[in-house]
Protein backbone atom coordinates (compact mmCIF):
# COMPACT_ATOMS: atom_id res chain seq x y z
CA UNK A 1 0.00 0.00 0.00
CA UNK A 2 1.45 3.39 -0.94
CA UNK A 3 1.43 6.14 1.62
CA UNK A 4 -1.16 8.04 -0.43
CA UNK A 5 -3.49 5.03 -0.40
CA UNK A 6 -2.97 4.62 3.34
CA UNK A 7 -3.80 8.29 3.95
CA UNK A 8 -6.94 7.86 1.86
CA UNK A 9 -8.06 4.92 4.01
CA UNK A 10 -7.32 6.86 7.17
CA UNK A 11 -9.42 9.79 5.94
CA UNK A 12 -12.33 7.45 5.19
CA UNK A 13 -12.02 5.88 8.61
CA UNK A 14 -12.10 9.27 10.29
CA UNK A 15 -15.12 10.34 8.25
CA UNK A 16 -16.99 7.15 9.23
CA UNK A 17 -16.06 7.63 12.89
CA UNK A 18 -17.47 11.19 12.75
CA UNK A 19 -20.84 10.14 11.31
CA UNK A 20 -22.59 9.24 14.59
CA UNK A 21 -21.54 12.57 16.10
CA UNK A 22 -22.95 14.42 13.10
CA UNK A 23 -26.19 12.50 13.45
CA UNK A 24 -26.56 13.57 17.07
CA UNK A 25 -25.80 17.16 16.17
CA UNK A 26 -28.34 17.12 13.34
CA UNK A 27 -31.04 15.74 15.61
CA UNK A 28 -30.40 18.37 18.27
CA UNK A 29 -30.61 21.17 15.69
CA UNK A 30 -33.90 19.77 14.40
CA UNK A 31 -35.31 19.48 17.90
CA UNK A 32 -34.55 23.14 18.61
CA UNK A 33 -35.96 24.55 15.35
CA UNK A 34 -39.36 26.07 16.15
CA UNK A 35 -42.34 24.69 14.29
CA UNK A 36 -43.26 26.94 11.36
CA UNK A 37 -46.57 28.75 11.64
CA UNK A 38 -48.56 27.63 8.61
CA UNK A 39 -51.12 30.10 7.27
CA UNK A 40 -53.26 29.39 4.22
CA UNK A 41 -54.45 32.43 2.27
CA UNK A 42 -56.85 32.64 -0.64
CA UNK A 43 -56.56 35.49 -3.12
CA UNK A 44 -59.61 36.36 -5.20
CA UNK A 45 -60.90 39.57 -6.78
CA UNK A 46 -60.87 41.73 -4.67
CA UNK A 47 -59.81 40.33 -1.33
CA UNK A 48 -57.49 38.13 0.62
CA UNK A 49 -59.09 35.54 2.92
CA UNK A 50 -58.45 35.72 5.80
CA UNK A 51 -57.81 39.44 5.60
CA UNK A 52 -56.13 39.38 9.00
CA UNK A 53 -54.22 36.73 10.92
CA UNK A 54 -51.89 36.50 13.90
CA UNK A 55 -48.44 34.98 14.22
CA UNK A 56 -45.75 34.96 16.90
CA UNK A 57 -42.59 37.03 16.48
CA UNK A 58 -39.32 35.16 16.10
CA UNK A 59 -40.91 32.00 14.74
CA UNK A 60 -40.84 31.09 11.05
CA UNK A 61 -44.03 31.67 9.08
CA UNK A 62 -45.01 29.72 5.98
CA UNK A 63 -47.72 31.36 3.90
CA UNK A 64 -49.42 29.11 1.38
CA UNK A 65 -51.33 31.39 -0.96
CA UNK A 66 -53.73 30.22 -3.65
CA UNK A 67 -55.28 32.56 -6.17
CA UNK A 68 -58.63 31.47 -7.56
CA UNK A 69 -58.94 33.75 -10.54
CA UNK A 70 -56.00 35.94 -11.59
CA UNK A 71 -52.26 36.51 -11.22
CA UNK A 72 -52.63 38.68 -8.15
CA UNK A 73 -49.51 40.07 -6.53
CA UNK A 74 -48.75 39.53 -2.85
CA UNK A 75 -46.75 42.44 -1.49
CA UNK A 76 -45.81 43.18 2.13
CA UNK A 77 -43.57 46.26 1.81
CA UNK A 78 -42.49 46.54 5.46
CA UNK A 79 -41.01 43.03 5.41
CA UNK A 80 -39.82 43.32 1.79
CA UNK A 81 -41.83 40.30 0.68
CA UNK A 82 -43.50 39.93 -2.68
CA UNK A 83 -44.69 37.13 -4.92
CA UNK A 84 -46.80 36.69 -8.01
CA UNK A 85 -49.77 34.39 -7.43
CA UNK A 86 -50.61 32.44 -10.57
CA UNK A 87 -54.11 30.98 -10.22
CA UNK A 88 -54.55 27.34 -9.36
CA UNK A 89 -51.17 26.70 -7.76
CA UNK A 90 -50.01 27.14 -4.19
CA UNK A 91 -47.39 29.87 -3.86
CA UNK A 92 -45.27 29.56 -0.72
CA UNK A 93 -43.83 32.62 1.01
CA UNK A 94 -41.50 32.03 3.97
CA UNK A 95 -40.30 34.59 6.47
CA UNK A 96 -39.63 35.11 10.15
CA UNK A 97 -41.10 38.32 11.57
CA UNK A 98 -38.66 39.56 14.20
CA UNK A 99 -40.60 42.58 15.53
CA UNK A 100 -44.13 42.56 16.95
CA UNK A 101 -46.44 44.93 15.10
CA UNK A 102 -49.03 45.15 12.37
CA UNK A 103 -47.85 44.59 8.82
CA UNK A 104 -50.06 45.40 5.85
CA UNK A 105 -50.08 43.38 2.68
CA UNK A 106 -51.76 44.19 -0.59
CA UNK A 107 -52.25 43.12 -4.17
CA UNK A 108 -49.80 44.91 -6.46
CA UNK A 109 -50.93 43.46 -9.79
CA UNK A 110 -53.82 45.56 -11.11
CA UNK A 111 -56.74 43.14 -11.13
CA UNK A 112 -59.83 45.26 -11.72
CA UNK A 113 -61.95 48.14 -10.50
CA UNK A 114 -61.68 47.29 -6.77
CA UNK A 115 -58.01 46.31 -6.93
CA UNK A 116 -57.15 49.07 -4.42
CA UNK A 117 -59.30 47.33 -1.79
CA UNK A 118 -57.43 44.04 -2.06
CA UNK A 119 -55.36 44.15 1.12
CA UNK A 120 -54.96 42.60 4.53
CA UNK A 121 -52.75 42.60 7.58
CA UNK A 122 -50.63 40.35 9.71
CA UNK A 123 -50.60 40.96 13.44
CA UNK A 124 -47.24 39.84 14.84
CA UNK A 125 -47.49 39.24 18.57
CA UNK A 126 -44.66 39.07 21.09
CA UNK A 127 -43.81 35.49 22.07
CA UNK A 128 -45.34 34.29 25.36
CA UNK A 129 -43.10 35.11 28.32
CU1 LIG B 1 -55.50 41.51 -7.10
Describe this structure in words.
The protein is α+β, with helices and mostly antiparallel strands and 129 residues long. The chain has 2 domains: 1-33; 37-125, Immunoglobulin-like. 23% of the residues lie in helices and 41% in strands. The strands form 2 sheets. It has a 5-stranded mixed sheet with strand order 3-9-8-5-6, with no helix packed on it. β5 and β6 (81-85) form a beta hairpin. The longest helix has 30 residues, at 3-32. The radius of gyration is 23 Å and the shape is extended. Copper (II) ion (CU) is lined by residues 72, 107, 109, 111, 115, 118. Copper (II) ion is lined by residues 72, 107, 109, 111, 115, 118.
Task: Walk me through the topology.
Blueprint: H1 3-32, E1 37-44, E2 47-49, E3 52-56, E4 61-67, E5 72-76, E6 81-85, E7 90-95, E8 101-107, E9 119-125
Parallel strand pairs: 1-4, 3-9
Antiparallel strand pairs: 1-2, 4-7, 5-6, 5-8, 8-9
What key phrases describe this protein's structure?
about 130 residues, alpha+beta, Immunoglobulin-like, about 40% strand, extended, binds copper (II) ion
Our count of domains comes out at: 2
User: How much strand?
Assistant: 35-45%
SS field, number of helical segments: 1
Structural class: alpha+beta
Q: Please give the oligomerization state of what you see.
A: single chain
Question: Order of helices and strands, N to C?
Answer: HEEEEEEEEE
What is the CATH superfamily classification of the largest domain? Cupredoxins -  blue copper proteins
Largest sheet: 5 strands, mixed
Helix content: 10-25%
Distance between the termini: 62 Å
Overall pLDDT: 87
Q: What hetero molecules are bound to the protein chains? A: copper (II) ion
Shape: extended
Determine the CATH topology of the largest domain. Immunoglobulin-like
Q: What is the CATH architecture annotation of the largest domain?
A: Sandwich
Poorly predicted regions are none
Strand order of the biggest β-sheet: 3-9-8-5-6
Radius of gyration: 23 Å
Amino acid sequence: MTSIARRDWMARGLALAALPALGLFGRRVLAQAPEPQLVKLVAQRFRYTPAEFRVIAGRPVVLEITSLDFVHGFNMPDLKLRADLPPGIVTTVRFTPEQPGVYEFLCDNFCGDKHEEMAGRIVVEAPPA
